[in-house]
What does this fold into?
Amino acid sequence: MTQTVGHCRGAVFKSNIGYVKKKYGSQGLNKITTYMKEKGAWMDLDKIRDTEWYPIRMRIAFLDGVYELFSGRNEEMFSLGKYAALHVERLALLVRYTKRTEEVVKESGQSWDKHWDIGSLEIMVNEHGHTLLRLEEFNIGPHQCKYLSGYFVGVAELSGANNVSIEETACISKGDPYHEFDLHWE
Ligand SMILES: [Zn+2]
It folds into this structure.
């Protein structure tokens, strides 16, 4: 069962909307709005505010919409997440000061609580070339997992890492007690 309680910040949606507009145009965004309305999770996607909290069902409906209306492929969720990471201003600023991927990944992990009021993200391993991230108490379906995989790859690439790869080695959606993302780079 996916959870229905919880919120995420408008900022989480913002760059996703940029991705949809860029790839599918305003028409694509309108389709998502209609889809969300049908799911009882309508929101004005053009008026989202970064710091406002939005119910988790809206996040689920948004990701379901992107998945079902467009390609129906996990790669799309991955690209959506990667695009988001590449457009986080805070991370881009950090990269000006450090190109150490482990520092940038750490910052992205530590900002979890600023964007979600559910789940906890812990960095289990963080050394040169390898980060292991564990996400607990968070179950909003598999799309967000693919999204996060893309997001962490994007964070690593933003910092200049090469040959970045990621594997979700445990997943609540598959019955594991938590999600675990194993990130490698050079
Ligand atoms: Zn997962």
The domain at 1-186 is CATH 3.90.1520.10 (H-NOX domain). The chain is about 50% helix and 20% strand. The CA atoms of residues 123 and 133 lie 5 Å apart.
